Amino acid sequence: MVPCPVPAGTSFPAFPSAFLSGASAPGSFPFPGLGPGRLPLPDRATLLTWKVRNRMMKQKTTGHRRIPSRLLGVSFLLAGMSLVPVSGPVWAREGATAATFGLVDEAPHTFLRPKQVSLFPTHALVQGEEELEVRVRDGVGRVELFVPENARNLQFDLGDVRLASWRSRVAPAAVADGDARRRQDLLARKRAVEGELEAVSARLGLWTAHAGERSLEALEKLDARMTEVIPRLRERQAALQRELKTISSVLASLPRVTESGQLVILLLDDATAGKVRVRYAYTLDNSGWDPVYDLDARPEEGTVRVLLTARLRQNSGMDWRGCDLSIVWQDARPLDAPALPVWRVDDGPVPRPYARAAAEFKSAPVMMAARADSAANAPAAPVPVLDKGTYARWDLGRVTLPQGQERLVLRQEEWKAPLQWVARPDEQGSPVWLMVERALDSTPWPSAPAEFSVDGLPVGSGRFVPEGNKVRLYFGVDPRVSVTTTTDDKRRGETGIIGKRQTWSWNWTYTVHNARAQAVTVRVERPEPLPVNKSVEVSLDGARAQKGEDHSLFWKVEVPAGESRSISHGVNVSAPAELGLSPVAP
Asked: How many Å apart are CA 245 and CA 251, to the nearest integer?
């Protein structure tokens, strides 16, 4: 036999002893002639495969000899041995956990169907009641419940029966109905399509391989067959690839098959065999709901269309069939009361520490300094993630909620709320925003993300944040209305004997431009200058301004279509020189 060089990196597959004579005995090194400190020696199957390849290469380079059919058949047999599929249970093939692999022989369990589910923004509260069998051994009763693996805060009520203790362990779960069953069927179909696609690709490879040296008559017959077979195989290959892509997309949208759960074992004192009614409850952190608003402003109609929907998340591992479903909204409040701050008169800002349980809430510093000469103390800034005492509950009745995500319409209204144009100019001017102010009814309105649009065209994302019994909504910038600022005067000086007082003055002109086809009324807003000392004097010049609730000044400027209107605004400040003030206008 002519020795064959072994290419670098060649791996030698282990073939069954039924195919190879001289194979190693069980427990010995898997390849004859291969062991620690020895060079790799090819076995008979590998040599036979090399022999077939050498003949094929020789055919291509010298004379194009025909490959003997017996060698070609043996080569296909050896190549096909690596295509034998390895079967196993579905839950073991799709990402089963290590704990699950140890429960191959255990019969799968079925989840208990809940009777009532309450969805909160952060979790779901699941409650149920079942009559379960009691098995008694050595005077100790045993009751089993099967719940989702990530269930926590488990609670049980057995009435007059005393619960001694309970424990839980991971156990395999039966495939549920609905999307779980559909996913399992799609996985089986995906494997079948992948296998058929490999077979079609292999057949195409055979038909498109080198034809070898054939007679003219044989080539004509082969050409006729290739014209018939290859297009059909190509068409089937493309169809399988399309189906495989569709199956993969559908699988990505379906919840994963729940492969395991939590088997809860209740141990009862002085129990007798029979039935016992068990009331249970647990929470799921992977299920809940989120409120979402869709707000569409209609400037010509003077209305805003409001749609409040609930985005439900159900990842329990089963379909909730025939359960009383409700969704609840309430504020996220810290569990502990905040610590009292230190109050030092005439001291600087003192951060207000929050209790350890409230560390997740972002708090703003609270100004607790008391100055005899200061203006009224500003209230503490609210924690951004909290609302103002909002609580709501929607009872949906008896429904079926499958696994996955769903959208549920909670409220749909049309508000009669004309749009306003709001500008907040600085020295460079200002764009003009579309704004709606609306008084809310007594029904709670959750603070939540919102999608904003004008006349059906999306303009951006924001938040719906009620402030007491009203809400202010902005619908982006109106590109056809703008404000420009002209600085008329900005001075600083001193008055009195030997400069006992300092003075500052600013004067601006705000010009509103309206390129719309109809007149608009623009609310121009500026901050109100607040003195920090009773000896500081502030006066205003120019157009008379109205005062807002948030220490603001505003003017309502009516601008006809295609025109511009201007207003003037001046601020004068006088303070004792020893205060050392250096005010800067925003």
From this structure: 10
